[in-house]
């Protein structure tokens, strides 16, 4: 059975779109807006912007996991996802406070270059993936994030950070950031 063709150009374009948009946000956020509360989260705009970068950092690591678990029978990834789902409460706490603390290190001056490095790495990996690689997948902790599904392929993992980015972008309270 042949594997479905993956639109690498579309995946690459989505990575690039977010990278350009993020730099635009960094360039246009006013000094008084960084510490303002975001909409629908307990983070400030700066903390939320870091969290958006963090989504790409996580995806970069998830690519490694799906390459590993995707070569194994379904049982190990199902057990791993179940274990992570059971740890949702501690994850939520670590995710919240981790983004708060990390935004102090990867602040507005450092998060743009960090996102550039992560996206460049993902784009390099994207160019090297085979069609068979894209079909591999694993089970995920679907309680951790609304864009994690019970089972995700490598192609799904490449799509994930853009979905996460767009979701949180709409929560920023920075002038001119709201999208219809």
Can you describe what's shown?
Helix 1 runs antiparallel to helix 5 (111-128), helix 2 (45-69) crosses helix 4 and helix 2 (45-69) runs antiparallel to helix 7. The chain has helices at 8-28, 45-69, 74-86, 88-105, 111-128, 131-135, 154-169, and strands at residues 137-139, 151-153. Helix content is 64%, strand content 3%. By secondary structure, the chain is mainly alpha-helical. It has a two-stranded antiparallel ribbon. The protein has 7 helices and 2 strands, in the order ααααααββα. The longest helix has 25 residues, at 45-69.
Number of helices: 7
Number of distinct beta strands? 2
Which ranges are low-confidence, i.e. pLDDT below 50, for 5 or more consecutive residues? none
Instruction: Give the % helix.
Output: 55-70%
State the major sheet. 2 strands, antiparallel
Question: Span from first to last CA?
Answer: 41 Å
The sequence of SSEs as H and E is HHHHHHEEH
Query: What is the overall shape?
Result: globular
Mean pLDDT: 92
Query: What strand order characterises the main sheet?
Result: 1-2
What is the beta-strand fraction?
A: under 5%
Radius of gyration: 17 Å
Structural class call reads: mainly alpha
Q: How would you sum up this structure in a few lines?
A:
This protein is mainly α. It contains seven helices and two strands; from the N terminus they run H-H-H-H-H-H-E-E-H.
Output the keywords.
mainly alpha; two-stranded antiparallel sheet
Layout of helices and strands:
Layout: H1 8-28, H2 45-69, H3 74-86, H4 88-105, H5 111-128, H6 131-135, E1 137-139, E2 151-153, H7 154-169
Antiparallel strand pairs: 1-2
Helix pairs in contact: 1-5, 1-7, 2-4, 2-5, 2-7
């Amino acid at each position: 059975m042949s594997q479905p063709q993956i639109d690498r150009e579309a995946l690459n374009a989505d990575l690039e779109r977010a990278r350009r948009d993020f730099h635009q946000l960094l360039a246009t956020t006013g000094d008084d807006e960084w510490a303002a509360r975001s909409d629908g989260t307990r983070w400030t705009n700066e903390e939320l912007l870091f969290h958006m970068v963090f989504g790409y950092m996580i995806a970069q690591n998830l690519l490694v996991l799906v390459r590993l678990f995707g070569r194994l029978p379904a049982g190990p990834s199902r057990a791993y996802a179940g274990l992570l789902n059971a740890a949702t409460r501690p994850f939520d706490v670590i995710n919240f406070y981790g983004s708060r603390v990390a935004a102090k290190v990867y602040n507005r001056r450092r998060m743009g270059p960090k996102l550039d490095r992560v996206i460049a790495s993902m784009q390099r990996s994207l160019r090297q993936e085979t069609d068979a690689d894209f079909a591999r997948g694993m089970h995920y902790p679907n309680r951790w994030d609304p864009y994690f599904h019970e089972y995700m392929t490598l192609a799904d993992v490449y799509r994930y950070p853009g979905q996460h980015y767009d979701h949180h972008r709409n929560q920023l309270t920075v002038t001119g950031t709201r999208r219809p």
